[in-house]
Amino acid sequence: MQFPFLSVIVFLPAAVALVILLYKPEWKKAIRWTALAAGLVALVLSFWVYFAYDKAAGGYQFIEKYDWMPMLGISLHFGVDGMSVPLILLTGVVMFTGVLISWGIEDRPREFFAFLFILASGVFGVFASLDLFMLFFFYEIAVFPMYLLIAIWGWVRTREYAAMKLTLYLFVGSVISLIGALVMYFTSGQHTFDMLVLATAQFTPEFQKTWFLPVFLGFAVLGGIFPFHNWSPDGHVAAPTAVSMFHAGVLMKLGAFAALRVGIMLLPEGAKFWSPLIMSLALVNIVYGAFIASVQTDFKYVIGFSSVSHMGLVAMGFATLNRDGMIGAGLQMFSHGVMTALFFAVVGMVYDRAHTREIPKLGGMVKPLPLPAIGLIVGSLVSMGMPGFSGFIAEFPIFRGIWGTERWWMAIIAAVSIVVTASYVLLVARKVFFGAMPAEFEGHISPINVFDKIALVLLMAFMIGIGLFPALMVPWVQTGVDRILALLGGA
Amino acid sequence: MTFLNQHLLTLILFFPLLAAVIVLLLPKGKLSLIRWTAFGLSLVPFALSVYLWILFDPAKSGFQFEVQYTWYAALNSTLHLGVDGLSLTMVLLTTLLTPIAILASFNISDRLRAYMFLFLALETGMLGVFLALDLLIFFVFWEVGLVPMYFLINQWGSEKGDREMWKGAVVQARNYASLKFMIYTMAGSLGLLLAIQLLGVLFQTYDLPTLTGKWTALEGTLLGLPVATVKTVAFWAFVIAFAIKVPVWPFHTWLPDAHTEAPTAGSMILAGVLLKLGAYGFLRLVLPLYPAESAKYAGALAFLAVMAIVFGAFASYGQKDFKRLVAYSSVNHMGFVVLGIAAAAKAAGTLDANIALNGAVLQMFNHGLSAAGMFFLVGVLYERTHTRNLDDFGGLFPLVPVYGGILIFTSMASLGLPGLNGFVSEFLVVRGSWPILTVYTAIAMIGLLFTGAYILKGIKQVLHGPLNEHWAHGEHKLTEISPREIVVMAPLMVLILVIGVYPAWILEIINKAVMMLF
User: 3-class DSSP state for residue A279?
Assistant: First the structure.
């Protein structure tokens, strides 16, 4: 039998979380090193899965299936395709860098890392699940620790509000999707939650048209789709650094991915019918998000709203339902994940030292913090879609996808966001890192430690690497997209 | 040797990037090591492009030294490189000006590694545009070049000067200028980006030679509109992107700001090479992809060009800041390039059109030499006096005779004195355009008069007239141009003279390429 890579990846973080909880709270050093070791193992395994995935063969690989509740047709069914395998890698990267960035957490690190790892298990589980029930199971597991992480370790001023808002939004969304899933389960008549079987269930077009929208939007709430996006900037801002990284970097992809897996892949006719609406909502995300981001004065809110704008591109790419758009959306999920993780890491580093995120009060940080400055600049270039960085590789096909639909004029409107994004990210980068440093910070800004440096360099390496060599990721996504297109009837 | 010959273009393109990374790895404090490494490494692409020039066969038509590598397979975009006489000239200009600009920046010591890194990365960006035979790759390099220039201006630009914004907010002038440069160009390129996406969706290829044939042959309806309408819109999208970069009136307003605030070497590259990217875009993309539209709207383009020539000259004359004066002169000179292109577009295939285009391409090369020289000379003066205000100078010639001689020589090239390079190219443009666009050419020639006026004004204010005693004695005593600075100017002056006296060696290369454009 093959080594069960996916099970190990999914359950390792949760297992380590339990182990950490057995430690004494004072063993801070041991807790951190255990967490780091677990993060490293997860990273190595996800790299392994990524590179061992056979692009030529395509389809689902690393399949594992164990009975869980056979009488209900629920099984622990894991497998990855070209769409999910980059996201497994992304989660591995964000988990590892998240641990590195959180090295300095002094307040109850034991519980912090434990919750963070349970969250990671949930995220890995969603990306790897081929069973609809299990997908929901892991989905909820991912959302719940988020509440605690924000409410306990978050920004004192808004953490209770933001945690509550986020959790309620996401629960409502997932309940609506769950109803859709149950309807699918009963309508299919196959008595199984196995998505591979459900995909062949031949739902009637009317059924698909009725149920696509609730299922898709229910998940897309987590992807930050307009008008259900406004939990996300609040949540990002209130969360501690590593959680923001997870939240924007991975969790939002969870929503987009589940919307794709359950909405588009199980109900393709519905997707075709509703695609104009989804595209319109995504267009609002893209343009409106960029404008809102450009007027924020809080460093972290800028990044929060920029995520709304960038995740709009993901939804847009999926909604085009064509090859270019979907490839772009798949790439954008990864690219945005590493980019926003880097952004939040940099914001955290500045905030930890300056104790303010008000952009007008900051300045001149490049001298004490050269590497974060470079990180923010690279992130900015990715975010504005500068060629040579992963953002361009992802956004260009999305725009091409829009041109391939009947609503090509949306490409012209969406393009406005590129310039708006460029202007605000450049201004923020300049105001925070360049110019004169306010006198109160002089001599108070300590340099970052080696763990922070490793995290920043790793994240930057992905953005530049994929930007220069698209072949490092595009073929994976392409095989995934080809399968989806087959479900859509070669559209 | 075969390896070298087969990968010549790849080496020329990516060596500067490699050099940039090497410079970044040098120890921080060793300033002169960093300087000499950067300079030495930047000579390698120059040597390679001279070698390319020697191997290049002007008798052959089409592209030479073509190489093609997979880049973005899902979009059918390949790293397809090749040179014809047009790109060869521009490659030589770029690889020549980069070492010169690096040598000109030996006085920089603030964050030197980053500075040199950006400069060398910029070289790869510019070369990529000139070498690309794939539309997407063209765009990639086109945009990427903005980033180093943005940082060069706002990190190493002039520290003095503020700019008042709305609501009374005041920002540093270099920040204002760099952001304006970046956003102006990016916004201008949006139409180009969208048009490129559309072309890719239509033909599933970005290979320029293939694309040209398919796109020009396209008829019927597209996106629910007649193809002619879509083509016209796409044509203007391309034109605006390139017109901003050239820049053509009324899209030039970013240029005086960017030039004034940029460090000396940045201005040299900006005027010397970056402006040529726009003109090159017209030649490489607009004319072949839109022959019919180009002919149809050539008049409008010529109008803008003439406006650039006339207003550029007037604006230049009106400046008090020496660097701004030279900046506006670029608008004036690049107007001739566009005029030549417009004339050629209107009467494609005729002898007059060929003459005009030859003139336009040679003018691109010539302006690269003289503008880089002028900006450097302004920089030399600024470094010593810390002012660029023309009223602060006066009568400096006896104090700095060598500098004065060089300044007059370079100014005369810019003015178009027969025997120097500017005359040859401007004469060719005017000779070619006259039968095609007579009225516009006539107005442009009157514009030449004002070119003479502002250049003489510059020389007079700096070198002649009563001596400003401030610079004659004591700590402010003006020092003569240094040997290093003369070395910077020497290759430019030699080429200015050589092309002025014997232009055939370069026109031979340009001519064949120009004939193939249609």
Answer: helix
B5 contacts B52 by C-beta, under 8 angstroms: no
Q: What is the pLDDT of residues B366-389, one digit of tens each?
A: 999 999 999 999 999 888 888 888
Using CB atoms, pick whichever of B70, B190, B201 lies closest to residue A418: B190
For A230, the domain range is: 5-487
Q: A400 to chain B, minimum CA–CA distance in Å?
A: 5
For residue B462, CA distances in Å to A339, B211, B474 come to: 51, 52, 20
In A263-364, where do the E strands start and end? Answer: none
Within 13 A of B22's CA, how many CA atoms are on the CB side?
17
Q: Which band of pLDDT confidence, cut at 50, 70 and 90, is reported for residue A490? A: low
Number of Cβ pairs < 8 A linking chain A and chain B? 80
Q: What is the rounded distance in angstroms from the CA atom of residue B326 to the CA atom of residue B336?
A: 16
And the tokens for A304?
A: 């929060």
DSSP state of B270: I
pLDDT at residue number A457 = 93
Average pLDDT on A63-88 reads 87
CA triplet A256, A259, A264: central angle to 5 degrees?
Answer: 125
Q: How confident is the model at residue A161 (pLDDT cuts 50, 70, 90)?
A: confident
Angle, helix B322-346 to helix B421-433, in steps of 10 degrees: 40
Q: Is B167 exposed, middle or buried (0-12, 13-18, 19+ CB in 10 A)?
A: exposed
- Residues of chain B found within 8 Å of residue A397, distances taken between Cβ atoms: 74-75
Kind and range of the H or E run holding A365: none
Q: Contact, B371 vs B363, CB < 8 A?
A: no
Determine which helix (DSSP H) or strand (DSSP E) holds A64, and give its type and residue range.
Answer: strand A61-69
Q: Looking at the complex, report in whole angstroms how far the Cα of residue B370 sits from the nearest Cα belonging to chain A.
A: 31
Q: What is the pLDDT of residues A110-127, one digit of tens each?
A: 888 888 899 999 999 999
Largest CA distance in chain B: 77
Single-letter residue type at B247: P
The closest alpha carbon to B59, from B505, B510, B361, B512, belongs to B512
- How many domains would you assign to chain A? 1
∠ Cα A151 A157 A161 (to 5°):
50
Give the Cα separation of B49 and B28 in Å (integer).
Answer: 31
Rg (CA), chain A: 21
* Residue B57 per-residue DSSP state: -
- DSSP assignments along B184-207, one per residue: HHHHHHHHHHHHHHHHHHHHS--B
Beta strand pairing call for B225-226 and B221-222: antiparallel
Euclidean distance between the first and final Cα of chain A, in Å?
A: 38
- Phi and psi at B222, nearest 5°, equal -145, 130
Which residue among B143, B186, B200 places its CB closest to the CB of A419? B186
Q: What is the DSSP string of A175-187?
A: HHHHHHHHHHHHH
- Report the Cα B172 to chain-centroid distance in Å: 26
CA of A410: which chain B residue's CA is closest?
Answer: B194
pLDDT in tens, B186-235: 888 898 999 998 888 888 888 888 888 888 877 777 777 888 888 899 99
Q: Which pLDDT score, from 0 to 100, does residue A491 have?
A: 45
Q: Where are the domains of chain B?
A: 297-518
Instruction: Please write the tens of the pLDDT for every residue from A250-263.
Output: 888 988 998 888 88
User: Which residue in A327, A412, A430 is closest to B175 by CB distance?
Assistant: A430
- Between CA A250 and CA A258 the distance in angstroms is 12
Mean pLDDT of chain B: 88
What pTM does this model have? 0.91
DSSP A95-126: HHHHHHHGGG--S-HHHHHHHHHHHHHHHHHH
What residues of B are in contact with residue A423 (Cβ under 8 Å)?
179, 183
Question: Which residue in the set B73, B182, B197 is minimally distant from A422, CB to CB?
Answer: B182
Tokens of B506: 């370069």
Query: Chain B residue closest to A408 (CA)?
Result: B223
